[in-house]
Design brief:
7-stranded antiparallel sheet, 328 residues, metal ion binding, mainly beta, metal-binding, iron, Pirin, 3 helices
Length: 328
């Protein structure tokens, strides 16, 4: 971890030095993700557990998948399942995952790639490791983030974005102590490739031991910092944070995160997944893979799924060879 890196961060664009008058966001809460299993039995950390929906808005759910080193025959995926009313953002740090839907779409994501699926009015979907990875085993590590859609977009046609890791905008801090990969949205004028219905920013940050990150952040966005690996502190009051923990921030203009000078022997740096977005501020009715505005809409989603109106499972799994997705 991670796949997308550079030999010399000092050649990258740099964040600006922030003014002394900058208002750093206070840390509202730090939560620890409970562990569980998803799909056919792969381990996950439920990163948003215990956080009020009002503080997550426009996000709904985040799973850290792995990090696990599978033996031959062990890699697992998910069975066919429906989605309606939101977007899934799957970020593959290590390993390979094929995805396919009931409308003929699909593709393969691997080290540093992101598969962005706007479910909209609904479809059936499956995610699974390719057969050669099942045979060989190997490292598997990724994230899946659920982004809510506003009422006006919940019944839009489904679409995909397959974002190669090399497309992410790369930048560093003034002293070169961090590598910042902008996956979606904008950080200090540097825009990531992901296109979103709801204005959001997603970044993967590697912070070297002892380094400090002062990250400008849109004041109208919420701000969530999840630790993928390592230890450090968040906020100007330096609250400790470690792998599997989420820091929820209050209002302000910037975030501050500092990596501990000493990391674990198998963790060379502090790895962060940083998210923020413009709150939708609409009622949320959530049941399994359906995220709507009312209970009646949830009932309709279940009925549509049971009646086959979200699609049917194809007779054969479509083989994928990697690269760009099959649909724009």
């Amino acid at each position: 971890m991670p796949a997308i890196t550079v030999d010399d961060v000092l050649v990258l664009p740099r964040l600006p030095e922030l003014a002394e008058s900058t208002t750093y966001r206070p840390v509202r809460r730090v939560t620890t993700a409970p562990s569980g299993y998803e799909g056919e039995g792969f381990p996950v950390r439920r990163a948003f557990a215990g956080v009020p929906m009002t503080e997550l808005d426009p996000f709904i759910h985040l799973d850290q998948m792995g990090e696990v080193d599978y033996a031959p025959g062990e890699p697992k995926g998910t069975p066919w399942h429906p989605h309606r009313g939101f977007e899934t953002v799957t970020y593959m740090i290590d390993g390979i995952m094929d995805h396919q839907d009931s409308q003929g779409g699909g593709g393969t994501i691997t080290d540093g790639d992101t598969q962005w699926m706007t479910a909209g009015r609904g479809l059936l979907h499956i995610e699974a490791p390719p057969e050669h990875l099942v045979m060989s085993g190997g490292l598997f590590h990724g994230l899946q983030l659920w982004v809510n859609l506003p009422r006006v977009a919940k019944m839009n046609p489904p679409r995909y974005q397959d974002i190669r890791g090399r497309e992410s905008a790369l930048l560093t801090t003034p002293d070169g102590g961090a590598l910042i990969r902008v996956i979606a949205g904008e950080v200090a004028g540097h825009r990531g490739p992901g296109s979103t219905h709801t204005p959001i920013t997603i970044a993967h940050v590697t912070l070297q031991p002892g380094a400090e990150l002062n990250l400008p952040w849109r004041p109208d966005f919420n701000a969530l910092v999840y630790v993928l690996a390592g230890r450090g502190t968040v906020g100007t009051d330096r609250r400790p944070i470690h792998i599997g923990q989420l820091a929820v921030h209050g209002a302000g203009d910037a975030l501050r995160v500092t990596a501990d000078a000493r990391q674990d022997a198998n963790t060379p740096a502090l790895e962060l997944y940083i998210m923020g977005g413009q709150p939708i501020r609409e009622p949320v009715a959530h049941y399994g893979p359906f995220v709507m505005n009312t209970r009646a809409e949830l009932i309709q989603a279940v009925e549509d799924y049971q009646a086959g109106r979200l699609g049917v499972v194809p007779a054969e799994r479509v083989p994928h060879s990697g690269g760009e997705g099959d649909r724009p």
